[in-house]
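Tokens for chain A. Residues wanted.
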């Protein structure tokens, strides 16, 4: 590792220490930090909940990092695909009577086909073009998805009542059943995708294309087919993420913008195109958001600022992220 890389890694580590200390300092100044037994129990609950929430964040961010890693396309419509997954789950639950978790079996094939169509009609033209081209194409796609969802479902917030109880992990730590279920499923899906990329022949072809598409083509890999599979898989991950967040939070057509921001912050923090980095980034972002929400006055409104600030600061300090991914 070069000296400049080491220095930037130390700077990033110092910044992250400050970022995580900031909610405590603000909370101490505002009087929301009390250090009594009840508050410490709330803190532990928030951290555990953040880890579980981060597992879901990381799972749907994997789709964004897959597309960037394989095709160097920044998908600005990724959050809208998460939103689409939430609405598909809502429709399956209220109109078809399908359990939100079982609905994933129905929605994932739809999402995969949607991703393939998007690749064929829109993203094929952006492969190999400047990054701004793909960014603008997917930005337009995201707007079209938002307006279509508003036309069909209006701008009202929707919720899916599912597993409203709590799980008592210890005497002081209790988390929602829906959050535990989402976390377990997110870990299972993320692990399955990781094993697919690591062990299967098709997954190895995806990784080879990500490393060098021209060499992969010379070796007999159908690169265009890999692009279709990658975008389909990314859309499926986003829609699965939408199903898991829909049983925890309310949503409307514009919540996709927030999920896009979170996915961007995650892959910037972990390293663009880096699978393990996305997992680490998802956990770190969710824990920071939960700390801000607990300790900072009006913290719920400050969560988006925390994500923006984290993303911008990491780009300034270490553009390659924690995993040190270099620009091609």
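Reply:
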């Amino acid at each position: 590792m070069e000296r400049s890389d080491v220095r930037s890694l130390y700077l990033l580590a110092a910044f992250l220490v400050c970022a995580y200390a900031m909610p405590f300092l603000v909370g101490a100044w505002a009087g929301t930090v009390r250090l009594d037994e009840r508050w410490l129990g709330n803190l532990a609950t928030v951290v555990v909940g953040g880890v579980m929430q981060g597992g879901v964040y990381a799972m749907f961010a994997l789709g964004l990092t897959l597309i960037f890693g394989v095709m160097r396309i920044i998908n600005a419509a990724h959050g809208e695909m998460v939103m689409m997954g939430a609405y598909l789950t809502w429709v399956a639950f209220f109109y078809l009577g399908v359990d939100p978790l079982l609905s994933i079996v129905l929605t994932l094939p739809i999402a995969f086909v949607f991703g393939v169509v998007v690749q064929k009609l829109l993203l094929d033209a952006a492969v190999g073009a400047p990054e701004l081209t793909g960014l603008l194409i997917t930005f337009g796609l995201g707007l079209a998805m938002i307006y279509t969802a508003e036309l069909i479902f209006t701008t009202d917030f929707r919720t899916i009542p599912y597993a409203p109880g709590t799980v008592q992990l210890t005497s002081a730590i209790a988390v929602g059943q829906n959050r535990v279920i989402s976390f377990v499923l997110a870990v299972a899906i993320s692990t399955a995708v990781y094993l697919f990329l690591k062990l299967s022949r098709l997954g190895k072809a995806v990784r080879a294309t990500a490393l060098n598409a021209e060499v992969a083509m010379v070796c007999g890999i159908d690169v265009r087919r890999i692009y279709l599979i990658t975008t389909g898989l990314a859309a499926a991950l986003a829609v699965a993420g939408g199903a898991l967040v829909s049983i925890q939070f309310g949503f409307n057509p514009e919540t996709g913008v927030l999920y896009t921001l979170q996915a961007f912050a995650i892959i910037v923090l972990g390293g663009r195109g880096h699978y393990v980095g996305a997992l680490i980034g998802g956990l770190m972002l969710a824990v920071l958001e939960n700390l801000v929400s607990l300790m900072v006055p009006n913290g719920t409104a400050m969560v988006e600022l925390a994500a923006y600030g984290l993303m911008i600061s990491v780009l300034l300090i270490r553009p390659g992220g924690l995993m040190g991914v270099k620009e091609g």
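Strands lie at 166-168, 174-176. DSSP finds twelve helices and two strands in the chain.
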